[in-house]
């Protein structure tokens, strides 16, 4: 008899106060109906084993689930986390890089700047990730508890019951056509690097000399005023590159429209940078003379090598990027 009372206590203590008396009475009646007259302790144990763990039995009397996110919403929950976490991380990374370089005065060593960005970037991404994880988890936990439907079949991303028609909404992505998140992050990182070099070229690109304990920047290679003349169109190109990277993150595969957008961006950016490169005032005369002496060439020859070589690299890389985009977009299976 003592085992029965303890069992009922273990069940009812997990229930709301207002339900305990009624559930205890119902449970005791059920147990007694399952027992024979003049039952033994072993027979009581057998009945209690049939009723099962008090925790599970108590949960059956409650409207609230035992789990935080149940099978009905778990797949949708995980899908949203996979989609939102990378986007939030990318936005956080772009924001911290932008903030840092807008406030960069040029007095700090570039290596120290890069290390600070890496450190702050990792910390910010972790913080944003925790925030996103918390709020999405809290939202689904509340949905789980306010949903009175007892159906536990997993829902689709549209929060409907799955049918074969849902397969029509799922895109088949061949492996060679897919866009990895690593590729997207690489694109964004490259955009951040070249944008930094563009707007701080007179402080980063040039001749460095070893003064004993550290490298000292002595001769800038480029005329910053020439770069700044074209800053509006360059900012538009930076924005277009970021938008294309986010579009890749959203679509996850190459399409003809994406390949066309990529081609337009590559052509425009190549033309713009060729216009900038052929500006006769772009290279610093002191830098040209310095390297001309080292390589025993005239200033005109050195100028032609640097500018001509850079233009060829721009055209080649843009051509390869356009070709690769259309090649992947045309993959059928």
How would you explain this protein's 3D organization?
The chain is mostly helical. It is 69% helix and 3% strand. The protein is built from 13 helices and 2 strands. It starts with a helix and ends with a helix. The mean pLDDT is 83.
Structural topology:
Layout: H1 2-12, H2 17-34, H3 41-51, H4 54-61, H5 71-102, H6 110-146, H7 181-199, H8 201-204, E1 206-210, E2 215-220, H9 224-229, H10 231-251, H11 256-277, H12 285-295, H13 299-329
Antiparallel strand pairs: 1-2
Strand content: under 5%
- Global morphology: elongated
Task: State the order of secondary-structure elements, H for helix, E for strand.
Answer: HHHHHHHHEEHHHHH
Average pLDDT for all residues? 83
Oligomer: single chain
Placed side by side, the strands forming the largest sheet appear as: 1-2
Please give the radius of gyration in angstroms: 33 Å
Q: How many β-strand runs?
A: 2
Instruction: List the total number of helices.
Output: 13
Unreliable stretches, pLDDT < 50, 5 or more residues?
none
Largest sheet: 2 strands, antiparallel
Distance between the termini: 69 Å
* Class inferred from helices and paired strands: mainly alpha
Estimate percent helicity. Answer: 55-70%
């Amino acid at each position: 008899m003592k085992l029965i009372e303890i069992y009922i206590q273990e069940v009812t203590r997990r229930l709301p106060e207002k339900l305990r008396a009624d559930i205890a009475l119902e449970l005791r009646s059920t147990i007694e109906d399952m027992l024979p007259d003049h039952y033994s302790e072993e027979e009581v144990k057998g009945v209690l084993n049939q009723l099962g763990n008090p925790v599970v039995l108590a949960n059956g009397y409650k409207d609230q689930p035992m789990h935080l996110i149940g099978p009905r919403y778990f797949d949708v929950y995980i899908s949203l986390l996979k989609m939102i976490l990378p986007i939030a991380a990318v936005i956080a990374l772009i924001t911290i890089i932008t903030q840092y370089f807008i406030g960069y005065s040029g007095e700090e060593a570039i290596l120290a700047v890069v290390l600070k960005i890496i450190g702050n970037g990792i910390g910010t991404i972790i913080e944003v990730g925790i925030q996103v994880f918390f709020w999405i988890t809290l939202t689904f936990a509340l949905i789980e508890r306010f949903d009175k439907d007892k159906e536990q079949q997993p829902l689709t991303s549209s929060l409907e019951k799955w049918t074969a028609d849902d397969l029509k909404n799922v895109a088949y992505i061949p492996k060679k056509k897919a866009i990895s998140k690593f590729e997207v992050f690489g694109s964004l990182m490259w955009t951040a690097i070249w944008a930094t070099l563009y707007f701080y070229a007179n402080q980063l690109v040039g001749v460095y000399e070893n003064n004993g304990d550290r490298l000292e920047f002595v001769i800038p290679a480029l005329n910053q005023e020439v770069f700044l003349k074209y800053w509006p169109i360059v900012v538009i190109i930076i924005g277009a590159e970021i938008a294309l990277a986010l579009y890749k993150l959203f679509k996850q595969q190459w399409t003809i429209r994406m390949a066309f957008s990529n081609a337009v961006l590559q052509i425009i950016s190549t033309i713009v940078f060729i216009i900038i490169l052929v500006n006769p005032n772009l290279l610093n005369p002191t830098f040209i003379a310095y390297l001309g002496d080292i390589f025993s060439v005239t200033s005109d020859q050195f100028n032609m090598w640097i500018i001509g070589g850079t233009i060829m690299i721009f055209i080649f890389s843009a051509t390869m990027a356009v070709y690769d985009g259309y090649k992947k977009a045309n993959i059928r299976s």
